Amino acid sequence: MTTTNTRAPLSTGSATLLVAEREISTQVRSKAFLISLVVLVAVVVGGIVAMSFFGGDDDQDAVPAAVVGLEPAAAEGLEEAGVEPTTSASMDEAEQLLRDEEVEAIIVSDADSPAGIRVIGLDSEPTEVTQLLAITPTVEVLEESDTDETMRFLVAAAFGAVFMFVGIGSGMMIVQNTIQEKQNRIVEILLAAISARALLGGKILGNSVLALGQAVVLGAAAVVGLLITGQQDMLDILTVPMLWFVLFFIPGFVLIASMFAAGASLVSRQEDSGTVVTPTMMLLMAPYFVVVFFGDNPTAMAIASYVPFSAPVAMPARMFFNEAQWFEPLLALGVLALATLLMTALAAKIYSRSLLQTGQRVSLKAALSSSD
After folding, report:
1. Domain residue spans in the chain?
2. pLDDT digits (tens, 9 = 90+) for 281-324
3. Cα–Cα distance between 241 and 222 in angstroms, integer?
4. Of 290, 292, 288, the residue nearest 302 (C-alpha)
5. 193 vs 16, 20, 176, 252, 275, CA distance in Å?
6. How many CB atoms sit inside 10 A of residue 279's CB?
7. Helices in 136-195 by DSSP H: which ranges?
8. Could you write out the three-class secondary structure of 224-256?
9. What's this model's pTM, rounded to 2 decimal places?
10. 266 closest CA partner among 356, 181, 193, 186
11. End-to-end CA distance of the chain
């Protein structure tokens, strides 16, 4: 008796997950992928450490001073002002500490002084201590300083660089794999088992997971860099914009990945890939140049935060500087998600209609007009 083993065809969902798993496992085992990720992590951490080192440290160490006859409440006020008080039992003891250069000055109670204290130096006026104890009035500025403009540029450029480099790296892997499968006729074997849409979905899903993983790793590297340089305040400010960047990154990369895959399906040789991926590359690099040239222009950044290709960069940057209303990121995310759905549907149509056409480059018009 002969038994025939029939195998049920894969569903679209199962096929998509299978292709995604293959994409992820292939790239994770690639030395080029791992080396590039390590290099990017080193650049992020090294850049933060270098900026902290060359930018100087705004936090000053507390200035030591000997204290004689002050009330405990007054001593606490000295600590808040940046003075490290050392209580001395007598003036002789305080003077010895000053002569031994263990303290910068002596602070004693003085009823005749308007401030209620007197500051004593060794051979010159203790200017550093008196400046710390001086009352500083409320200060405001009419124009933004160069430091604020530099911070605006660095934060926006960092978001733009991560989106651009991760997008280019993962997008070009989609292009190379798609063209290689088409050139080697492997795609014909794949399409005999699964649909073109499942193949496209798996490629986009797998590479999106990898791209998101890279973005998270780079974000973690930035957190480590800020922590080891003592920039906890900056980390607290960046936390919410970074979370929004991840939320915008997911549909933003899917949008770009679908365009890369659709473009790659039009050609059969790696040599011809330049003409079909250049438009996508330009759109991917656009957010970086937007923040470089228009990062200090609130109107331009507001417009860019609603444009699908630049929203993943512009909106988190605006949120960092509290320039966006609470509803704006939700609205921009909705616009980006809708654009991603439309582009993915269009890419699926191009991909399925041109994947099996080999030889000369398939024109976009021909791919859209032909049948599946």
Report:
1. 12-54+145-369, 66-125
2. 998 888 888 887 887 888 889 999 999 989 999 999 888 888 88
3. 13
4. 290
5. 12, 15, 22, 30, 30
6. 11
7. 146-183, 186-193
8. HHHHHCCCHHHHHHHHHHHHHHHHHHHHHHHHH
9. 0.73
10. 356
11. 41
